[in-house]
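User: I'm putting together a teaching handout on how multi-component assemblies are represented. Below are the sequence lines for each component of a complex, exactly as they appear in our records. Could you produce the 3D structure of the whole assembly as structure tokens, so the students can see both representations side by side? Please keep the chain order the same as the input.
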Amino acid sequence: MDMNKSGRLVPYPSGAFIPERDLGNMPVLEARHLGIDFGGLTAVDDFSLTIGRTEIAGLIGPNGAGKTTVFNLLTNVYQPTRGNILVNGYSTAGKSTHQVSKMGIARTFQNIRLYSNLSVLDNVKVGLHNTLKESFFAAVTHGFGYGKAERVADSVALELLDFFSLADLAETTAGSLPYGAQRRLEIVRALATSPSILLLDEPAAGMNPSETAELMENIRRIRDNFHIAVLLIEHDMNLVMGICEGICVLNYGKIITKGTPDEIRSNPTVIEAYLGRKGASETC
Amino acid sequence: MKANLKNRLCSKNAVTLYFITALYLVVSILVYGGWASRHLSSMLISISCYIAMAVSLNLVVGMLGELSLGHAGFMSVGLFAGCLFSIYTVGTLPLIVRLPGAMLLGGSAAALAGLVVGLPALRLKGDYLAIVTLGCGEIIKNVITNLNITGGALGLNTSTIYSGTKTLLPYAIALVFITVLVMMNLKKSKHGRAIMAIRDNRIAAESNGVDVTYYKLVVFVLSAFFAGAAGAIYGHSFANVKAATFDYNMSIEVLVIVVLGGMGSINGAVIAAIALKALPELLRDISDYRMLVYSVLLILIMLLNSSPRFADMKGRWSIGAMYKMLRYGRKAAVETEVSHGHE
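Assistant: Of course. Below is the structure of the complete assembly, with chains in the same order as your input.
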């Protein structure tokens, strides 16, 4: 795999590690010393992460470590108490979630959040919302460029659906799709916003090994075809170790280590976080 | 291009428009031929206004998924603004300019009221929003009752601009058509999809780049506009209008129409408005039990509406399904209805 070979992590001027092939470009996402407090509780603290333009990165950690909170911070669902976020070099401070989406961050959710009463096609077309040129006047009259805009939207949406073999189900109501297809549709809808980084929150949850293998292949295809970065939260270690170039381990809201899959696998603090101190001494 | 036009002429939306056209054609022939009883013709304007109000409230309740109980308030803003305009211009402008002008002005005034109420209220959701809109409706009613220009508690004397059904009907028909067309078109557009996305999952919609606050406000303003325009016509069919008549009971009546028609369904809202407004009049013969029968029927229809088996049956025997059956044969019609079952 050519893409993987150049995916070797090398130091970026800021000191972070990104894949070698992304060195010439500005990182797609930079989180600097992010932190958030809920009341007296510090949920995430001093979270710094740099992701290269076409990197596949993983965010792992035990339950309750604050992984989803990090996603909510990156998409400004929660406004960070400390630190700042740069997307393609632009700060997202003070922006609302829909503005962050326009800046290039797309995400999926741990518990699937589809528009269950809309058709599969319409779900993807909501993802195209900001790229679709259709004025309000055109919308209520169904003239003045409405037809053209809808035709473009239909063809783009169908192409995306076809990429994930969902095109046959385009007219189905999203709520009646089988589980695996719903997960794929959520990814398609996120891709429709033409992001520069895709955040996947436990994409393999509830999937069997063959579905997980297909998902891994899909994530690689997303990176190779759309030339975007992917950051994923996942508990399935085969998936994480299989496709991620860089991995960040979170525990109690703090980063305990960052590195390549091989480094993470043999890191005693990571084993300790997952298995406890006694388990760690038994494994080593 | 030709195929495109054919598709548009045969779509489900077009079928609804044909249905309304046919209905109004029959009614118009009856009214202008002099065959309609006074009873029927007196109901027509009120039914048309209720259709426009129900279809516009459907935008808030059915498509956006928020409960609004202030629709009568917006309607009375439009009613009084439109009627005042009409009263002051009755000597100078001919009816053909005056009435559309009144509708436009009434609609705009109501839209403004929708904006003013919407800005603070749309930070709320669900029950809280319902209570705030209910309160706003009552505030509007009380403000109008206490203004000198609107005639105070005695009501506004509209006898100078009063027009009969024969005069008002064409304008009412135009209003219903425009309202239904706008709502249908909106539903199948980028903006309509964004609104329904907010209803189905607000958080996902935000993360897909939909500006939730903006769309909530647009929905509120647009639905208030059509309610206001309907109010302006409605006012012309009375010799005297009192704000107290348009209280929360009326808002709830419109809401009942929307819920009865199936939330989000424009056809349903039209049919339910006709049925619910005509029913009390038809039951006038058994006047002692009128409201009792009316309530029992309402309860029965609600029970039926929430039953999946009835929904299935309704899908199979709807106008759209009938039409598809004629066009593609029985099997295709059943198949498409199954896949569109949730729409």
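A couple of points students might notice: Chain B touches chain A through 34 residues (CB under 8 Å). The beta strands of chain B are 156-157, 240-241.
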